[in-house]
Amino acid sequence: MVDQTVSEFGQIDILINNANINFAFKPFTEMNWEEFSYKLNNEMKAAFHLCQEVVPLMEKQGGGKIVLISSGLSRTPAQGFIAHGTAKAALSTFAKYLAQESGPKNIVTNIVSPRLVLTDATKDQPSEMHDMLRSLTPLQRIAKPENIAGAILSMAADWNNHINAYIPVNGGIDMS
């Protein structure tokens, strides 16, 4: 994938990692190690290998931007999401280390961290869950894909070259 992108476009200026590996949605006491580690290992494996291929290319070209998509569940737990939240917390920590190591080489690394986003994958979740999250959010609404895309575009913009951060895109739910 990386070789094909470089072959077609000449270089990679921006890497957006939005891997979301399926996971077991259940309480910790009902989960086995295989279910837990599947999410953790595969989520990190995708980010690790992509970044390991792209960072040296960005170094050679004088810099670049990396945006990793995490989850608000990496910071604020919810019942049944232990595998997902733990994997995304690992991804967020990975990004901090990557930012520290790659920053001096003019590579900017950011985490965009949405909570619930209305997508095909989430549309069938119970309406009670959507209502509860909406009520906890000062904006009283749930994110749409374009809200997350806006944050990613902002991180990828040429003018935005001094932010190495965790960017919550969650309507303020972290404040509750």
TrEMBL record:
Leader peptide range in chain numbering: none
InterPro entries: NAD(P)-bd_dom_sf, SDR_fam
Matching Pfam families: adh_short_C2
PANTHER family: DEHYDROGENASE/REDUCTASE (SDR FAMILY) MEMBER 4, DEHYDROGENASE_REDUCTASE 4
Family listed: Belongs to the short-chain dehydrogenases/reductases (SDR) family.
Protein name: SDR family oxidoreductase
Origin species: Metabacillus arenae
